[in-house]
Every structure is written in C-alpha cells, then in structure tokens.
Specification:
CATH architecture of the largest domain: 4-Layer Sandwich
Strand order of the largest sheet: 1-16-15-2-3-4-5-6-7
Oligomer: single chain
Number of helices: 15
CATH topology of the largest domain: Metallo-beta-lactamase, Chain A
Structural class: alpha/beta
Number of strands: 18
Shape: globular
Bound molecules: zinc ion
Length: 482
Amino acid sequence: MNKILKHLKTVISGLGFVAVATQLALAEPPAVQKPSSAEEVKAALFGGVPGDKWKEGLLFEGIKPSPWMASASNWFPRTEKVQPNEMRIIFMGSAPFIRPGQMNTAILVELGNGDIFMFDIGEGSPANIIASGYALNEISDVFITHLHVDHFGGLPYLWMFGTWAGGWHNNLTVHGPSGRTPEYGTNTMVDGMKMMTGWHRDAFSVFPVGKGWDIEVNEFDFRDNGGVVYEKNGVKITHWQRSHAKDGASGYRLDWNDLCFVWTGDGRPNMNDIPYVKDCDVFVTEQQPELVEISSGVQGVPPFLARYTIDTHHTPGYAAGYVANLVQPRLFMTTHMPFDPYINEESVAEIREHWKGPFHFGAPDGIVVNVTKEQIWVREGILPDFPNSRAPQFDFSNGQLVVPHPTTSREEIQEPFIRESEIDPKKYYPKGYHPDLLTDWPVKGDLVVPLDQLPESLKNSMGAAWRHRVENQKVLDAQSKN
Ligand SMILES: [Zn+2]
Ligand SMILES: [Zn+2]
C-alpha cells in the first residue's frame, strides 16, 4: 500500500513539474531570428501552389478555394455565409437508388442575393437540407425536371413540415413540365399530392398555417424550348425538353449575376441540349457507367435490364464527356449515379475520353460547390447524422413576427369521446409537479409580436437569413450603381 502511495506521489510531482515547465514555455515569447532571403522564401513557399509557380493537375484549371472559406478542405454547415457575388450549390441527394449516403436526386442552389432554389427534391433529401443548416421554410421554389418519383418524393414532406415549421407567409411554388396530356403534367401530380395529404393538412390546421397550404403550380409547356419559367430579382431560369423515354422531361438553366448553373435532369445525350447550356459555368448532368455486366454481378440486376434502362433513358459516361466538351463549362459535374469505389475510376476514365477540363462528381450527398466569377471550389460537406433544425426564418422588415391563428381545433376535427378518455395528467405527473397544460390555442386572432418584445435569442436565430440577405443586397446595390 505504502509503495503504491509513494509511486502515486512521484507521478503527481512529475505532473506538477510538466505543468510548471509548460507555463514557463508559454510565458517566454519565441526568439527573433534573422529572416531568410526573399528568393528563398518564395522558392520554399510558392512552389506547387496552384496559380503561382506552375500549372498543375488535369482537373484544376480555375479551380481553387477562396480565402474567406472557414476551411478549404471541408464545408461545415452554418460556418460560412454565401458571399454577395457567389453561388453555392449543394447536392442534397445524388442517386436514383436511395441509400443512407445517397438520397434521391436533389440540388440546392443559394445565391448571394439570398434566393434559394431546389432543383428536384428526391425522397430523403429533406434530411440533408436540414443537416446542411437550412430551415425548411427557407425553400419556396422547387423546380422538378420530370415526374419520376426519385425526383420529387421529398415534396410532400417539405410541404407538410415546412408549413408546420414557420412556412406561414411564403407559400410553396412547384415549377414543372406539362405532359403530353393533362393527366401526366405537374398540375395533376400536385392535385394528387393534395388528395394524398388531405388528412395531414386538416390535422396540422390545429397549428398556425397562414398561406402554407396554398401551394402554387407553375406548369409550363414541355415543348417550349428555351422558355422562361422564372424571372425575379435578377434571376432567370429557363427550361428545355429532354429525351427521357416519355414526353414531359425537362432540363433547367439558372442565370444570375453573370453566373450560370445547369441541371439537365435525366435523359439521353441530345444535340437539342447544347444551345440551352452552352458555356455555362457549372454544368451538371446525369451519368451511368458502362459496367452493366460487372454491376449485375455486384447488385444482382440482370444485365439486359440495366442496358435497356441506360439505352432508353440515360447518359452513358462516354456521352456525358462528349456533351461536356460541346458545352465547355468551367466545371463539369455528374450526379444521379451510384457512388462506389469500383465504379468511380471507370466513370472518370469514360468521361475523360472526350472531356479534358475540370470535372467533379456531384455525389455522394453533401458535396458543396462555391462559384464566383474568379474561382470555383468543391468540398465534401460534413453533414451531421443527428442535426437539430435551423430555426424557421422570417422576413422581419415589417418589424414584427406574425403567427397566424390556426384554422381549426381539436373540437372541430375529433370526436369528444376519445379526447375525454385521455388519462388524467394528475395520475402520471409526480406529486408537486404539474405544468400548466396548453390544450387550447392561447390567442384569439393572429399573434403579432413587435420585434422589441421578441426574446433576443429568437430575434437573432429567426431573423438570421433575412439580415444576411439585407447585408448582401447593400453590397450588390452599391456594385450596380458603380
Ligand atoms: Zn432519376
Ligand atoms: Zn428519370
């Protein structure tokens, strides 16, 4: 016992010495040494740094990080604001076959003017939108390329829970193509979704709803190649027709502030695409690797089924590169494919048969692309598995928070018997603990809270996106005056 105590004493006094030594080292500033020559510094520090000594890499022309990034190696949600002249693209879903690392196809584009657009919203993608630090009520415009369910399966969730989570003042607009006949158009899909969510919407109407359920549809003629589907606040979005086995598939091009983004959606390589996507900064298309027999062995899908699916619906890797070479984007990206080690190298080899410029996968989920006129940078976003949602975001320019009055109540939509047979809370709350239960909506009309009466923490968290938009807009306005 004594021996052990003695040993412990030695260890503790040893630790004490280390602590004192550390303190001394910290107290002493580093010694000043004679500087190296300017030539030596340049030779040592600038060798191999892109753009300063030699041109390196086959995929990196004009591709480099911006100095204001919190980290050039990874993107962490809520650590960076989109700059006034920047476009940020995040892949929220990247595959037709849903799996934990790859939700169904969905691409979020945020612009320096504060606008946010969703291009497709595949099943599961709302999880990544939340993990990326966006509130669901920040999304009010969704552009659907076509009505395969892997491109819009996340829509009912976005609509229902985006409304619950503060989507009271900006209703959702769904933009999408017509079909050859009305029953195959976007309007009909949304009508079907309204029917499917009938119970849910009535049930959620015991909560504030406001304009939440007033979903709008902007259905355009799928044949109107080059037609403008959206034009507001300096943003122009055009569409064109794609060959995807059935009429009613479209591609989208977004132009803003001299920057361009294209998402073709699904489809066969087609010369009709070229005039609408030529010279775009970031050109994203889909791509299927030519590995049908190998993939058949891995996934157990008969090879003919994969071959037939590609040859009637999709863009083979070789064709993706061929199209990219015609388009000449600053960055070429492919998505909507399995992101697997055995496939990726093959995909790159096939694409580079024709495309020699910058290329990156728009997969797996969480790939982030920052685009300015000067440079583009692609990072893996580190999305948490258990994120908490961002606070709902509100436009506070009217100086108040308005919470609309619910349009129904439990009394109206539930039989009294089942509510009255609920267990008396006195029976389960412990003695001395009984919260004031809130079983009726606490205000008569809309709740209108002047900002100076809103708790500081709520004002800060719920007005963050609005304040960012105002700050950036000032910069953009000053620029346009010069
Ligand atoms: Zn698809
Ligand atoms: Zn499809």
